[in-house]
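Running log. JK asked me to keep both predictions on one page so they can be read side by side. First protein, sequence followed by its tokens:
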Amino acid sequence: MGATPAWPPRSAPRLFVTGPLAESAPVTIEGGQAHYLGKVMRIAPGDAVILCDDETGEWAAEVVSAGKRDVVLAVRERLREREAVPDFWLCAALLKKPNFDLVLEKATELGVAHVQPLITRRCVADKLNPERALTIVTEAAEQCARTALPGIAEPVKLDALLRDWPEGRTLFFADETGGAPAAAQFAAHPGPAALLVGPEGGFDDEERALIRAHPMARAITLGPRILRGETASIGATALWMAISGDW
């Protein structure tokens, strides 16, 4: 006699929903998420769906009914508490839309706690669609089995970011003109941290001087090559996670 299959199966679809979730509570899925479950995943009564609410953690739910316009689920059990993510912020200058979309997606997958979009003098964009940004990070969190969504702030200008910078949080400045090796700086300054990355054209001299003058700023180099904004954000975040985070 074969072993009883694990429930919920690892292949069960994952969704973030509005919470809070609780055992035995009904959940109705509508709109695009219902279409995804019904038409793409072809779920049926009795199937499992993994739900997260960014509050209480991860839950296994069972499909009660799957109609043309909605899917009704019954929450069965909590699988995990909401995870504690490393206290790391990504302060990234706005890039062209597809490039910044990539930054949001990969920052979520890597475990960033908070994304602060930044407006600098050489930015080619000065706005961020908050609904689009939330969709990107939510889908990335669903894909990588993350239970806590990163916070996404409204874009701010560089001088405002530095003026209001919280005491006690190290600001690692990815400076293409040079700095201390990133790995050594990350190891030397544990605790709450943030990474500051510039736009396609980099920071101008006045901005660079302003950042370097900040008492919490630590200029770092990411190697001998000048990296694109999205590459610098992703690569340096991965390095910080390997040294100081949850890798």
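And the second, directly underneath as requested:
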Amino acid sequence: MSVSIRIDDALYETAKVRAKTEMRSIPQQIAYWAKVGRAALDNPDLPIEFVRDTLQAMEEESEPFEFPDE
């Protein structure tokens, strides 16, 4: 679903620059910021860097680790 919203011009320009450097579209960048912000508000005792890094790690593709048989 797509919804149009109005945002401040300065926020749009900042998102445009960050989106390019982080290889996202502008809507994806704003959605990412919203996701990080929501997680930070839900966990005020955690540093924002930890919240950001955890969300990024959750998005990465990975294979389960298997311990070798001894």
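Observation for JK regarding the second prediction: The two ends are 51 Å apart (CA to CA).
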